[in-house]
Amino acid sequence: MLILPDPFVGTAVSTLTSLMLLFLFLLATGTMSRIRIERESWPFFGSGAVVSALAQLLNFTALSRGDVSAMVPLLNTTPLFTVLFSSLFLRQVEKVTLRIVLGAALMVAGVLVITSR
């Protein structure tokens, strides 16, 4: 962000790096041929890609416009929202236990301790 303070560049670099590493991993492990995406799944993968790219763009925008020491703790509250939304929307699939809630809270607390002034 110091060299090119544009959130779009940060998002593009991050996304392309992740994609290249995924393909290298698939090639190295010989599992590239096992990837088969059903036609009915494309809308879900497409919407997931759009939401993920938008999230990265918003993260980089927040980091470029705000004070990093204030933005990093806010951005790292993700585990709390993950636990909250999984308990709301994935009740039949994911069981949220006290251990999971405490783990998410400890992750956020650790970030706050590390980034506190």
Number of strands: 0
| C-alpha-based Rg, rounded | 18 Å
Number of helices: 5
Average predicted local confidence, pLDDT: 87
Q: Which range best describes the helical content: under 10%, 10-25%, 25-40%, 40-55%, 55-70% or over 70%?
A: over 70%
Low-confidence stretches: none
How many structural domains? Answer: 2
Q: What letter string, H or E per element, gives the SSE order?
A: HHHHH
Distance between the termini: 22 Å
Main pleated sheet: none
Based on secondary structure, the structural category is mainly alpha
Q: What would you note in describing this structure?
A:
The protein is mainly α. It has 2 domains: 1-65; 67-117. It contains 5 helices and no strands. It has helices spanning 7-29, 42-65, 68-75, 78-89, 98-115. Helix 1 crosses helix 2 and helix 2 packs antiparallel against helix 3 (68-75). The longest helix has 24 residues, at 42-65. It starts with 6 loop residues before the first helix and ends with a helix.
